[in-house]
Amino acid sequence: GQQVMQIPQYQHVQEGEDFTTYCNSSTTLSNIQWYKQRPGGHPVFLIQLVKSGEVKKQKRLTFQFGEAKKNSSLHITATQTTDVGTYFCAVLDNYGQNFVFGPGTRLSVLP
Amino acid sequence: EADIYQTPRYLVIGTGKKITLECSQTMGHDKMYWYQQDPGMELHLIHYSYGVNSTEKGDLSSESTVSRIRTEHFPLTLESARPSHTSQYLCATRPSGLTDTQYFGPGTRLTVL
User: Most buried residue, B3, B26, B33, B56, by CB count within 10 Å?
Assistant: First the structure.
């Protein structure tokens, strides 16, 4: 079935440093979604990318969809302690019915 | 935020007990999902439903069962709880469109002693 990889698995940064997580697929994707899960919380939708090469920004967060639509990245500029959590990418399965979630990147921010 | 409710939020129970985790939604979404997740780890899909009387097993083998008698409710039942079932269980819903967002409930943290 559809599989998606995320790197890195863990990332520890000092507050104020930048952070990037990558999501990679072996197949061309129709779209990709990003979710954030705070410690003790549940995943919350952040954004969806649909077009090749698409770039979207949400304040300090920048999301990019690769030209070949096989990978995506989430970049956080000048991290804050509120950015702590696990970031998941999600892509549609081979049947186009359910979303398959990546293993997540766990971000910790040291004050 | 979507209106998805899960009860109980926390449950500590002894081995061998039968338990039902409740999930309800008020958005009329056809698709509903159950995930098992250890803290901060991967989301494992254990059951899903595309509508009333539709239930399917997910990617992760589970000893639990589900039912979908009404659109709003998607309860998950463990006939005989074991310590290996200790985990967080997340319910989620999604409208039927391919680009629609998935909404998660607050989760139930289950501990089996």
Answer: B33
Count of CB atoms within 10 A of residue A109's CB?
A: 20
Which segments of chain A are extended strands (E)? 4-7, 10-14, 19-25, 32-37, 44-49, 55-58, 61-65, 71-76, 85-92, 99-101, 105-110
CB contact under 8 A, B104 and A99: no
Best residue in A31, A69, A88, A99 for a mutation probing chain B (most B CBs within 10 Å): A99
Structure tokens at B53: 């009387």
Cα distances (Å, whole numbers) of residue A55 to A32, A66, A90, B30, B42:
12, 9, 17, 31, 26
pLDDT at A102 over 60: yes
Q: For B101, which of A1, A42, A45 is closest by C-beta distance?
A: A45
Mean pLDDT of B86-112: 92
User: Rounded to an integer, what distance in angstroms lies between the CA atom of residue A88 and that of residue A67?
Assistant: 20
Cα A33 from Cα B9, distance rounded (Å) = 27
Report whether B68 contacts B32 (CB < 8 A): yes
For residue B22, what is the enclosing H or E element?
A: strand B19-25
Reading the block at residue A63, the tokens are 């999301």
Query: What's the confidence (pLDDT) of residue B97?
Result: 77
Alpha-carbon span A108 to A12, nearest angstrom: 5
CA A42 to chain B, closest CA, distance in angstroms equals 6
pLDDT at A95: 84
What pLDDT, on a 0 to 100 scale, did the predictor assign at position A4? 93
